[in-house]
Specification:
Layout (H helix, E strand, L loop, with lengths): L18 E9 L4 H11 L4 E4 L10 H9 L3 E4 L12 H19 L6 E2 L8 H9 L3 E2 L4 E2 L9 H13 L8 E6 L2 H16 L3 E2 L2 H6 L1
Parallel strand pairs: 1-2, 1-7, 1-8, 2-3, 4-5, 6-7
Helix pairs in contact: 1-6, 5-6
């Protein structure tokens, strides 16, 4: 996705070269636990942007706690994954705060608040409201389009390899958006390996913004 006319102050890259932040959108899903197993094995910390209504299923709550306990970052992806620019202010606030309350209640965490707007869609009105609520807004600058079910595992991997072949860790950093699809789960070890071979260091989005 190309971004145009974004408000100032939105994070799309890390503040220093050589960093890469793995971010997973739209959880919690049945694949979350398997992703955590891979990340633990690879000793990589990632960031999960949670859709609040997923927390209504009680069997997902232990996974949310596990994400937190393993040192990953949990961000806000709103309650029902709607286009925030189309919502009145009160509904926008409800979408954000209901999700945050669920995250805070289950993890006991008071991490700095980060939010990724659904679809990456944001305008000045929404940005100003989110900023007034204390949120840092995170988008991305690398997208494997793994949300597209028509893209095969090989297609996703080949595309990623081409992007990373051109990547320069002395000059660039990346916030990589991923989704919890089966294809992504299968490719995650290769995604990590290829980034390491290029000498990129993995960080969570809060570290990405300040390192």
């Amino acid at each position: 996705m190309g971004f145009t006319n974004l408000p100032m102050g939105i994070h799309r890259t890390c503040s220093q070269p050589g960093l890469i932040a793995l971010t997973f959108d739209d959880g919690i899903t049945p694949n979350s636990k398997h992703i955590l197993e891979i990340l633990e094995r690879e000793q990589v910390k990632a960031s999960f942007f949670i859709v609040g209504e997923m927390l209504l299923e009680r069997n997902r709550l232990p996974i949310l706690k596990q994400i937190h306990e393993q040192g990953h970052f949990i961000g806000n992806h709103t309650w029902t994954h709607l286009n925030l620019t189309q919502l009145p202010e009160q509904r926008l606030e409800e979408e954000v705060l209901a999700t945050q309350n669920g995250i805070d209640l289950e993890t006991g965490s008071k991490q700095k608040r980060y939010l990724r707007p659904p679809f990456g869609v944001i305008d000045q009105r929404v940005y100003d409201k989110l900023a007034s609520l204390g949120y840092v807004i995170v988008l991305w600058n690398m997208d494997l389009k793994d949300w597209n079910t028509h893209r095969s595992k090989q297609h996703i991997l080949t595309y990623y390899q081409k992007l990373m072949a051109k990547a320069d860790p002395t000059k660039e950093s990346f916030i990589l958006i991923l989704h919890e699809r089966n294809a992504t789960l299968t490719l995650l070890p290769d995604i990590i390996r290829i980034a390491r071979e290029k000498n990129f260091r993995f960080v969570t989005v809060d570290r990405c913004a300040i390192d």
